[in-house]
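Worked example 3. Consider a protein that binds zinc ion.
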Amino acid sequence: MDRACSPLVQTLQSSPNFEPRRGKTRADMLILHYTGMMSAPRVVAWFANPASRLSSHYVIDDDGRITQMVSEADRAWHAGVGSWAGETDINSASIGIEIQNPGHDLGYPEFNPTQMAAVTALSLDIVTRNAIPPTRVLAHSDVSPGRKIDPGEKFDWRGLHAKGVGHWVEPAPLDETDDGLGTGATDARIARATELLARYGYGITPSPTLDVAAARVVRSFQLHFRPARPDGRLDHSTLETLEALVASADAVA
Ligand SMILES: [Zn+2]
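Given these inputs, the predicted complex is written out as C-alpha cells:
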C-alpha cells in the first residue's frame, strides 16, 4: 500500500478485503460512515480479518487518529448495496471513511471536536487530491436509504461544509405545528419532492404518493440536510431545504 495514501495517516494496517476498482481507475465520491462498534481497534481488527468481507480506506478513532487500511486506488468493501445518480457500484466509485462512533443502537454519542477536526482534514485532503465535487461527498445513508442510517443526524455536515468539504444549504426552520405528510399520502408536494430527490441523486422514482421506499429516502435526506427531525415525513421545512439545495447544486457540482 505505497500509493494513494493520505499524508495525514498515522497508522497503516492492511486489510485483505479489497479488489481493483471495476470500470474506474479512481474514485469520484467520498462516503462517510460511523463504525457502529464499541472501539476503533475492534473495527480495524475486524476489517483486517478476511472473514469479515468488510473494509474501508480509512478509520478515524475518537481521538482523531487515522488508520489507512486500503489504498485509494483500490475498491474497498464499505458501502454494499446502494445507488447514487445512476451509479450502483458505490464501492468502485468511492473512497470510504469509517468514523468511530458506536451508533444509534449503542447510545449514539456526539462526534467530538478532535475527531471532527481529523475527519475534516482527511476529507479535505481526499476531495482535493481526487477532484471529488462537493455534491458527491455523501453519507452512507444517502446511498443506501432504509438499509443504513450512518453517520446520522449528529454528524456535523454544516461544519464540514464551512471548512470546504461537501454541499450544504442552511436548513429551513422547523415548524413544530407542521407534522408533514407521511407514508401513504398523495400530494403534489410529494411529486415535487421525489422529483427533486431523484434529480439530486437519490435512488427514488418520482411519484405523487409517498410509499415506504420514498419515505426512507426522505429520512435519508433529513439525516444529512435537515437533521433537526429525521422522521421521514415530508414537512414544509424539508421541501424548502430540498428546493434550496437542488437550486444551488449546479453552482458547486
Ligand atoms: Zn456505513
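Take a moment to read the result before moving on. The chain has two domains: 11-162, 188-252. Strands lie at 11-12, 18-20, 29-34, 58-60, 66-68, 74-76, 94-99, 137-139.
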